[in-house]
Amino acid sequence: MKILKFGGTSVGSAQSIKTLLNILKDEVKQSAADKPVVVLSAMSGVTNLLIAMAEEAAKGNDFAAQLAELEKRHFDTVKTLLEIRDQNPALTRLKINFNHLEELLQGILTLRELTQKTRDLVISYGERCSTLMISKIAAQYFPSVFVDASEVIKTDSTFGQAKVNTELTEQLICGLYHENKDQILFVTGFIGSNDSGQITTLGRGGSDYTAAIFGAALNASEIQIWTDVNGMMTADPRMVKKAFSLSELTYTEAMELSYFGAKVIYPPTMIPAFLKKIPIVIKNTFEPEFVGTVIQHDCKPSNLAIKGISSINNISILNVEGSGMVGKSGFSGRLFSLLAREQINVILITQSSSEHSITFAVQPGDTERARQVIEHEFELELLAKKLEHVEIEKDLAILAVVGENMKETPGVSGKLFHSLGRNGVNVRAIAQGSSEYNISVIISSTDLAKALNAVHDAFFVQLTKTLHAFCLGTGNIGKTLFRQLNGHAAFLQENNGIQVKIAGISNTRKMAFNADGISLDNWEETLDQAPDQADLPAFIAKMKSMNLPNCVFIDNTASPVPTAFYEQVLKSTISIVTCNKIGNSGPYQQYKTFRDSARQHGVDFFYETNVGAGLPIIRTLKDLMNSGDRVQKIEAILSGTISFLFNNFKGDANFHDTVKLAQEKGYTEPDPRDDLRGTDFMRKMLILARDAGYALETSDVSIESMLPQACLDAASVDDFYKSLIAEDAHFANLKNKAESEGKVLRYIGKLENGKASITLEMVDESHPFYMLSGSDNIISFTTDRYKERPLVIKGPGAGAEVTAAGVFADLINVGAN
Ligand SMILES: NC(=O)C1=CN([C@@H]2O[C@H](COP(=O)(O)OP(=O)(O)OC[C@H]3O[C@@H](n4cnc5c(N)ncnc54)[C@H](O)[C@@H]3O)[C@@H](O)[C@H]2O)C=CC1
Ligand SMILES: N[C@@H](CC=O)C(=O)O
Ligand code: NA
């Protein structure tokens, strides 16, 4: 036989009671010979209301309106679910209950006193009324009997948290069950009675406890706990959207998971069932076909290192420290006995290996009192300076990863701390249960949601990892990146398990945010309609305060302004991906600071597109350097624009039009003068030289200009284009000279012996850089290992598609770490 327990929401309305009855009908159909026992809670909210009425009455306040409301709720439910002819007996018995309750509350009001004993009696009316009502409604379909559990669950007199006399209770339950074998028992959860027949309550998780007591007494085959969620989940679904239901848990895992959270059941009360190895199935009344979670003695082997992550927000820690504790046996005994005596619940304890300090966590409401009682108890030690004053830290949270597999899986704590560290979550204290079923960390409350999501992503790798990107710049590259991301999202999710959510976008006009991701189908409209005007410091502040996991800042601007924020972004443990070269080609010290900050804070700083757009140049150089190679020489064509000009400024072509065409094709910088003056190329040479280990500054790169002075002097882009027309003869001469000699023009960068230069050259077909087309870049690395034949990378080195693709790849590489 089975025990079916229904919680408050499952009996909270006429509609949910109908659903409950359908579940019961199915159960009876399936196992007709073996009638289940049904345990019921009070209608949702009723227990709290009863307590509130009693407390108000004790203060001398009237409770009539609330009582009438409560009565009406039950009466209305009866009237909705029972045939008219059957209503009277049910309503009469309910009315008797409400009359008793009224007398009781009146007594409290008169005496202005509410004892724990009276409180238990008041509360018991919640279960007694709901169960009476439902047993009457159910009698329309099954032979049903109402059971007031106080007749069979016998306890001591610890009101509020009574201890059960197991032997006697089991005898009484068996007797009751056998007397009513042909009927379904509808049992009030949560209540019992002492030797004198006075009502007691069973404490936290009370109705679950009743189900477990009945299950154990009757050797049930299964205890079903019907609630309003899909079983136990991997994490609190209100904070972790990707949390999913667990199909199986061992008793120990269920205990550990619910210790700091998972309010689905309160496993300590299930101990009677655990001892008899009775499976507990958690089911959702509102989605009965969902399999739910089975908690049992043995689970199928699982390849998941952890089963779930539990958490408890809003706790405080107290740190007790001093030389007086070292080697003093009995100190912690004295400390924790004191706290137990004072009924201060200690949630977690860690002790330093030097025994010099003990840190423990308590509920915020207990914090000050804990400090006071400790300082009082250890007054002498404090005076003798053998103990420091107790330190308190508030606004903290506990996060715990839980699972029996942890014991056999190396690297669980490594993964936990890596994901916390990479997300800038500071760990205040750590505790590992000696059972190794649980590793708990104490972190700041404000980091809890971020930490839960990051840790969830790290452990449940079969799920998608979500990157939260904050993007600056919606021009040529920014726009293209959004299009590529949108087009490739499904593939990424399926093949790489990565989801990119654009949590923030800004250009120079507007900014928009959405932690759930701005839709890339209509980001332009979203940004246009966003209420916030662009404000970079505010954008950065908002990005930080959103405190999202796996966060990446993407700079797709050509502006020096964002680069001033890189350091603080990295310090906030947010990775950076940038195609903007201005940061890396600023003062050397700044270049170095970016790398140092990224390393210190365990985040990425990726900028592949700073040189050769999407071509793997930076990555290759990094691999060479990291593997101990040394760059002897670099020769390169790294301006896609100028490469395009020399590949297309042929025959009748005119220079001005060819530059215009390069700009139209998206090869140039937003200001094409940056390309033609050699500034863009210089930045790339500088970044390469620095990555190759040379601490060069801008002034160390010598540039041979390919422009006549008049073009260099142009004060605006318009003037610049005009100057190109005016100087047409100069460019035609250059071209004709090269053509007449069977050569081509090439703007070539060199780095040799730590000296960097860019020169305009004419090369013939014997030169390796002769054969280029489009916006091709080419780079040859001569290194200690690539000496005889250099390592060469060649391909399109400018253009929105290839650049956005490089930014995209960097972003995914951040996700891979
Ligand atoms: N075009 C190419 O082939 C390549 C370009 N790049 C780099 O890509 C970057 C972007 O180039 P484009 O998209 O062509 O430029 P763009 O001028 O089309 O777009 C720049 C965007 O940045 C925004 N912006 C500028 N300052 C801002 C600020 N302070 N805050 C917020 N937004 C700001 C602008 O509103 C605009 O949306 C440049 O740094 C360029 O060097 C890198 C490699 C290749
Ligand atoms: N404007 C640049 C684009 C790539 O960095 C170029 O022309 O190379
Ligand atoms: Na590149």
Your description of this structure?
With 817 residues, the chain is α/β, with parallel strands linked by helices. It folds into 4 domains: 2-44 and 127-228, 3-Layer(aba) Sandwich (Carbamate kinase); 308-459, VC0802-like, CATH 3.30.2130; 470-611, NAD(P)-binding Rossmann-like Domain (Rossmann fold, 3-Layer(aba) Sandwich); 617-798, Dihydrodipicolinate Reductase, domain 2, CATH 3.30.360. The protein contains 28 helices and 29 strands. Strand 15 and strand 16 form a beta hairpin. Helix 4 (84-111) packs antiparallel against helix 5 and helix 21 crosses helix 22. The longest helix is centred in the first third of the chain and has 28 residues, at 84-111. The protein is elongated and about 115 Å long. The protein starts with a strand and ends with a helix. Bound molecules: 1,4-dihydronicotinamide adenine dinucleotide, the ligand N[C@@H](CC=O)C(=O)O and sodium ion (NA). Sodium ion is lined by residues 608-609, 611-615, 617-618, 806.
Query: What structural class should be given to the helix and strand makeup?
Result: alpha/beta
Average predicted local confidence, pLDDT: 93
Strand line-up across the major sheet = 3-4-2-1-7-9-10-8
**Name of the top-level CATH class of the largest domain:** Alpha Beta
What best-fitting shape do the alpha-carbon axes yield? elongated
Helix content: 40-55%
Low-confidence stretches: none
Strand content: 15-25%
End-to-end separation in angstroms reads 51 Å
Instruction: Give the CATH topology of the largest domain.
Output: Dihydrodipicolinate Reductase, domain 2
Pfam families: AA_kinase, ACT_9, Homoserine_dh, NAD_binding_3
Subunit structure: Homotetramer.
Keywords: Amino-acid biosynthesis, ATP-binding, Kinase, Lysine biosynthesis, Metal-binding, Methionine biosynthesis, Multifunctional enzyme, NAD, NADP, Nucleotide-binding, Oxidoreductase, Sodium, Threonine biosynthesis, Transferase
Family: In the C-terminal section; belongs to the homoserine dehydrogenase family.
